[in-house]
Amino acid sequence: MSEALPGLSDLDSAWSAGTEARSAADQADDHLATSVATTSLALTAEQRGDLALALRLAGDALSRADHSPARLGHRYTVRGVHGLILTDLDRFDEARSTLQAGARIAEELGIRLHLSSYQVFLAVEAFAAGDWDEALAEAQVGLELAEEVGETYTRVWCQSLRSLILVHRNDLRGVAGAAQV
């Protein structure tokens, strides 16, 4: 399944792998694998610059996850991908709403690992919307959640976003502090 995740070098192969993975997941009636494969296709379409297709695919993944038994499809961050694509389209209110819903669902399902991811997605949305103070606050919550569950990937995103904002604010001392994590 990891072959379906898009890299910048070979989007055609990523698309083919995602299509094959989704077909196999559909045949196996595997709701989690379907979520991963469909969101991978959405990310690939996004990387290709086809945001309309990316949004349709992310919406399809979201619909499938919503209708999966015991919401199994939400064991992957489908609302995160959907929210990031809405952010790319400058549909910030919709993005924030879907990301907040994703965080609620992750909490309801007891998937603490996803909570830090949703926080960083919310931070990215706030940054893109120009609300840098909110972005910093969301990133801080994401950082704390990531540390709580021992997740490092989100920590890097949170600190990177924090550093980017501090550079734009010409706070080089703050940037140096952010890089110390």
SSE blueprint:
Layout: H1 11-28, H2 31-48, H3 51-66, H4 78-88, H5 92-108, H6 112-128, H7 132-149, H8 153-168, H9 172-178
Helix pairs in contact: 1-2, 2-3, 2-4, 3-4, 4-5, 4-6, 5-6, 6-7, 6-8, 7-8, 8-9
Q: How does this structure look, described?
A:
The protein has helices at residues 11-28, 31-48, 51-66, 78-88, 92-108, 112-128, 132-149, 153-168, 172-178. It is an all-alpha fold and 181 residues long. The mean pLDDT is 91.
Overall residue-averaged pLDDT value: 91
Question: Which radius of gyration do the C-alpha atoms yield?
Answer: 17 Å
> Main sheet?
none
How helix-rich are the residues, as a percent range? over 70%
Based on secondary structure, the structural category is mainly alpha
Which blocks of ≥5 consecutive residues have pLDDT under 50?
none
The succession of helices and strands, N to C, reads: HHHHHHHHH
* Proportion of residues in β-strands: under 5%
Total helical elements = 9
Describe the structure concisely for a colleague.
The chain has 181 residues and is mainly alpha-helical. The chain has helices spanning 11-28, 31-48, 51-66, 78-88, 92-108, 112-128, 132-149, 153-168, 172-178.
